[in-house]
Amino acid sequence: MIEAVLSLVLVSGLLVVSLNTVGASTMGQSKVGDQGRAQLLALDLMNEILEQDYQDPTEPVTFGLEPLDIGPGRTGFDDVDDYRNYSASPPVHRDGTAISGLTGWTEQVAVVRVNATTPSVTQPAISETGVKKITVTIKKGTAMLATFTALRAQTNPVSSTGVPLNQW
User: Fold this and answer.
1) DSSP per-residue codes, 4-28
2) 92 exposed, middle or buried (CB, 10 Å; 0-12, 13-18, 19+)?
3) SS in 3 state form for 29-87?
4) Is residue 77 a contact partner of residue 55, using CB atoms and an 8 Å limit?
5) Phi and psi at residue 117, in whole multiples of 5°?
6) Phi and psi at residue 153, in whole multiples of 5°?
7) Average pLDDT of the residues of the chain
8) Which position has the higher pLDDT, 158 or 72?
9) What secondary structure does DSSP assign to 73-134, as a single string?
10) Which H/E stretch holds residue 136?
């Protein structure tokens, strides 16, 4: 009888340990899957931004959204800085439709002007420099899952007064 009880306790202990191991493995796989999905979302949004013109091709140059850039989703965004301070929760396609399965997720974009010689400095430049730093962040709840940073240079940089700057 004692041997049966000891065997039952031993088997029960092993079952608890194995279930904890399976649970931890499943949680790890879920986290890796979320990080992979977040990286793809961030990369897709970054590619969308980098395909845009450096500055608005049709309206007077302002830093941020111009009046004619408002539309469904991001369809009206036509230059890099239109994405300045952009955020959506849950993440959406360019046309504004929500991406399924991402409730509780957030996509955020920061666009700042930076000095071409020191783009990694955290202090953004006040006036036009010919270089913009773009940061795309994907979060699930409060956990940051992915972040990508890129620099976008103007092909023929000009100052805010329209005077050409040094060629890159």
Assistant:
1) HHHHHHHHHHHHHHHHHHHHHHHHH
2) middle
3) HHHHHHHHHHHHHHHHHHHHHHCCECCCCCCCCCCCCCHHHCCCCCCCCCEHHHHCCCE
4) no
5) -85, -20
6) -105, 150
7) 83
8) 72
9) TTTT--BGGGGTT-EESS-B-TTSPBPTT-TTEEEEEEEEE--TT-TT-SS--SS--SEEEE
10) strand 131-140
* pLDDT band, very low/low/confident/very high, at 28 (cuts 50, 70, 90): low
Q: How far apart are CA 151 and CA 161, in angstroms?
A: 22
Q: Which of 159, 161, 152, 158 is nearest to 133 (CA)?
A: 152
Over the stretch 39-91, which tens digit does the pLDDT of each residue have? 999 999 999 999 999 988 777 777 877 777 777 788 889 899 999 999 999 99
2: part of which helix (H) or strand (E)? helix 2-50
Sheet (strand 105-113) strand order = 87-88, 105-113, 131-140, 143-153
Tokens 């962040």 appear where?
A: 137
Tell me the pLDDT band of 167, cut-offs 50, 70 and 90.
very low
Q: CA-to-CA distance for 136 and 41, rounded, in angstroms? A: 9
pLDDT at 163 over 60: no
pLDDT at 162 over 80: no
